[in-house]
Amino acid sequence: MASPLPQVLLDGLFAGGTYALMAAGMALILGVVKVINLSHGAFFTLGAYVAYALAERGVETPIAAAPLAAVIAFAFGVFLGKSFVNPARSHPFALPVGTLACALLFEQAAQMAWGPHPLSIGADAPWIGPGGLVIRRWGVIAFLSSAALLGGLRWVLSARPGLSLRLIAEDEEIAGSLGMDVEAIRYLTFGGACAMAAAAGALLSPSGAVTPTMGRAPLLLSLVVVIVAGMDSVAAIFLLSIGLGIFGNACAWFLSPQWSYVALLAAVCLLLSARPAGIVALAGRRD
Amino acid sequence: MTVNPGSLLRPPYILIGPAALFLYLFSCVFPAAPCVAAAHPDALKIGVLAPLSGPYAAGGTSFVQAATLAVEQANAEGGVFGQRVTIVVGDTQGRVDVAKAEALRLVSREKVSALVGAYLSEETVGVMEVAAAHRTVLLVPVAATAEITDKVRREYARYRYVFRVGYSIPQWAEMIAAFLSDRKVRRYAFVGAGIRWNRELGETLERIVAPLGIAPAYTAYYSPGNPAFDTVAVAAAAASPDIVILADPGRNSVSFLKRLRESAPALPALSIGGALGDARLAASVPLSAPVYVQAAAWRGVSAAATAYVERYEHRFGAPPVGYSDTLPYDAVTVLVAAWRKAGSAATEAVVPVLERGTFAGAAGAYRFDDAHQADWGTGPGALRGIFVRWERDGARIVFPPR
After folding, report:
1. CATH number for A188
2. How far is B234 from chain A (nearest CA, A)?
3. Do B228 and A87 touch (CB under 8 A)?
4. What is the ipTM score, two decimals?
5. B20 — contact with chain A (CB < 8 Å)?
6. For chain A, does the N or the C end have fewer beta carbons within 10 angstroms?
7. Torsion angle (degrees, nearest 10) of CA B35, B39, B42, B46
8. Interatomic CA distance for residues A177 and A181, integer angstroms
9. In B, which residues are within 8 Å of A128 by CB distance?
């Protein structure tokens, strides 16, 4: 390969795909349930451990682990949504603190069950593209999954099945007066978003090490993406994720690896200060 | 809208039931980790400082497990002057302030007779101050910064209680240089987490290998919190080195090596002081090119090393990684031997014994120089460490030649 720059940019695209994968569920929770779920990263970790547990039993394909992880996380998410999120929603500080406590509880549980030592699942060799371009399999999975998830979410929200979600997101009282079971839709949405995070964790598990705290970084970045993009546009979430992924990698390449995260967060701060309501307002369009 | 003040208390009540049930079930299924020994009222106490939470929890847990094993071994041999030995653990969380506070707690409240730790160089430099102020023996197993022994040399009266069992940065660089020379490396890439000992090691290694005609082709440090693996792996491969030296003690070493293998499947890698000494992790990494690991000791190097590895594996269900476990094991072993030789655990009696004696450990015979640094390196009689290469059926010792 003549210059490594195309490789750096392609990897940035894939990194953006991983942000978008997590941000999809986070946007759903923020938009419909209207809570900041700090346990979202714990569900990502749960998915990775499900993939590891299956790999230990000879099922080494993360694609096979994703549905199982999603089902387990959905059950946990519904339980959490019904028993804690719905009753505590009216108290502004209870939910972030409570969901953070749930995340820490899960991390401790994972540490007790699997130990603090990093675990790892074997990854398949990458594809080699034109000019020796390395196409990382987990990156392709992240990119395509996030595109599919966010595309599906956009379709659901714009079509008839998403009417109840849109209505609840706009005005819960009207939704309730129309006979919708707002409480049930909220905790089912919460469970669905948790399932998306767990599926993401399972799909991305071969790319790195599986540890109890592995969900923290994706949690922060997905939260940043959703807040900056605004919750009104699914396309903006996807495009911003990809943009930040490429920007972070480009900074690592042109400046220094240690500067990439700083530069990324600095860019986010600039965007927020320019447009606190999110960049969708900047573009002047809504989905 | 009216708010019932009583309802503010609802969320915690709702959680109490499930949380209690969850904790009860967990305590039944996963009993408390046996690695943290309970304090025994009439026992000699060793304060062990290691990160049991935070990004270095894995290394810290191995650290405490190994210390526990050494204490169990000492007690099986009859303890020290008829007394049992126990460890009291302080969780440093990988933070200097917490490490100092925990050291203070162990010394002043738990009344430990000596300290072993901490893990990171930053933490250890902080803990040295507590040990000096309270005139408590401190054995340093893994922290490598030259500042530790420099302080002992410069201000002996203040820091004479501090002894380093593990290798210092210059000694470490010397051992790596010997290995690189043996492998006929001319250009290397040095990559690691942007923490203190990595930077010191990178700079020292560059200086030590220069007379051997070896030079760095690429150097990069990434943020441990959110590392830019992809870019670093691509850049390291693009620099066309003969080998990549991976200086990362934590989980990121696995993730980085996976990226490196994707970018450059034929590029050899050397992991120093990292998690890649764990056979379970090594099994998940493609071995399309050599993966070397440097360790303090390894199974098969000596009878003592093999006995230690087997005991560790039997006790904890997995073999040690050879660094963050082996050196703490040896630190406790050296301390117990010094207590026995001195006939006392009193600091003033133990310090001269440590200064003059020779102590057997899993990695070999420990002797301390004027700066209270154990003799590691390539010289005659020095502790030499070991380099292994992972293969499909396990690790093979490749250096020093045997």
Report:
1. 1.10.3470
2. 7
3. no
4. 0.86
5. no
6. C
7. 60
8. 10
9. none
Provide the residue range defining the domain that includes A237.
5-283
User: Is the per-residue pLDDT at B217 higher than 80?
Assistant: yes
Half-sphere exposure for B239 (CA within 13 Å, toward CB): 23
Length of chain B: 402
From the list B62, B231, B251, which residue is nearest A252 (CB)? B231
Q: Which amino acid is at B157?
A: A
B199 CB neighbour count, 10 Å cutoff? 18
What residue type is assigned to position A282 of the chain? L
Burial of B266 (0-12, 13-18, 19+ CB in 10 A): exposed
Q: Burial, A151: exposed, middle or buried (Cβ in 10 Å; 0-12, 13-18, 19+)?
A: middle
Report the candidate in B368, B333, B250 with the shortest Cα–Cα distance to residue B67.
B333
Pick from B313, B316, B290: nearest CA to B392? B290
Over the stretch B333-391, which tens digit does the pLDDT of each residue have?
A: 999 999 999 999 999 999 999 999 999 999 999 999 999 999 999 888 899 999 999 99
What are φ and ψ of residue B114, in 5° steps?
-160, 160
Q: Among candidates A94, A109, A192, which has minimal Cα distance to A152? A: A192
What is the per-residue pLDDT across B224-278, written as a single tens digit (0 to 9) for each? 777 778 899 999 999 999 999 999 877 788 889 999 999 899 999 999 977 888 8
Say whether B233 sits in a helix, a strand or coil: helix
pLDDT for B8 beyond 50: no
Neighbours of A94 (CB within 10 A): 19
B342, B349 Cβ separation under 8 angstroms: yes
Report the distance separating Cα B24 and Cα A237, nearest Å: 41
With tokens 């090596």, the residue in question is B257
How many independent structural domains does chain A possess?
1
The answer to whether B265 touches B210, Cβ cutoff 8 Å, is no
Inter-chain contact A257–B18, Cβ cutoff 8 Å?
no
Q: Tell me the pTM.
A: 0.85
Show the domains of chain B with their CATH numbers.
44-167+305-366 (3.40.50.2300), 170-295+385-399 (3.40.50.2300)
